[in-house]
Amino acid sequence: MTAVRAPLRQLTARLERGRAGRATLRLRQRSAVIDAGFEAIERDSDIGGVILAGALAYRLFVFALPLSFFLVSASGAVSRAVGAEPSAVPRTIGLAGVFTKQVASAGSSPASWWVALSSFAVLAYATRVLFRAVSIAHALAWQRSAAAVKVPSRNLGVFAAALIGQLALGAVVGAVHHRSASLGVVAVAAYALGAAALWLAVELRVPHGQAAWSELLPGSLLYGAGVTCVAVFNVLILGRLIESKAETYGALGTAATFLLAFFFIGRIIIASAVLNATLHERRIRGGA
């Protein structure tokens, strides 16, 4: 009987998959939005979106390390020069602020200027590596190939400016929220739009097929909304989790927590590129 039941179970499973597939096909035929969503998911799977997001998370982590040392050491050096308190500087810059708390002891070192200069050099290299990774991810999403990806200095400058702009936005939002919770909600919405605008500038400097700037807006808005959600998660959950669990789980637990947040950002970057590429291809097919 066991030998008979096994083929029957396999046949039943195939029939159920067939019914589910037909139901999905009918649903996709009825709604263009649902069809586009499934197409984007398929494209993401084809290019290995999860793996690409993991690679971006690692590069974001490598980028955040020299950034944190630079912010802390530079703020410490400047504060001693002007006689101000350095601890308030890195406190209001979102995920970078959480990160800098883990290396804040560098700000009290007498050699802060040397730490700032050396960390800035490493930061410049890490920024280039991160931009190349973002460019490769977009090339795979748009062209299914990253063989011809290059990193011109001008494009790298735009990417670096966008990162600085996003850090500045985070600092403003943190300062506004610290003064007024109601104004903080408005500032968060402004942060989402600002991050979307900055990411649009980046998307115009990475592979994006023949798409016009207006065709990149959906992915940019997705990025703005996504990183805002991650920023809120970092402030409300991640920062408190690190502070409460740092002594329990040590440096490895802290690093794993950061990598989780960076993985979320990586998934948002991949999703924005996949969304724009999918919608662009559908427009081309619809106009053909």
What does this 3D model show about the protein?
The chain has 288 residues and is an all-alpha fold. The chain is globular and about 60 Å long. The model is unreliable at 86-93 (pLDDT under 50). The termini are far apart. The chain is built from eight helices and no strands. The chain has one domain.
List keywords for this structure.
mainly alpha; 83% helix; globular
Short structural description:
This protein has 8 helices and no strands. With 288 residues, it is mainly alpha-helical.
Average predicted confidence as pLDDT = 79
**General shape:** globular
SSE order: HHHHHHHH
Tell how many strands the DSSP assignment holds.
0
Any chance you could write out the topology, listing elements then pairs?
Blueprint: H1 2-30, H2 32-46, H3 49-82, H4 94-101, H5 112-143, H6 153-179, H7 181-203, H8 217-287
Helix pairs in contact: 1-2, 2-8, 3-4, 3-5, 3-8, 4-8, 5-8, 6-7, 7-8
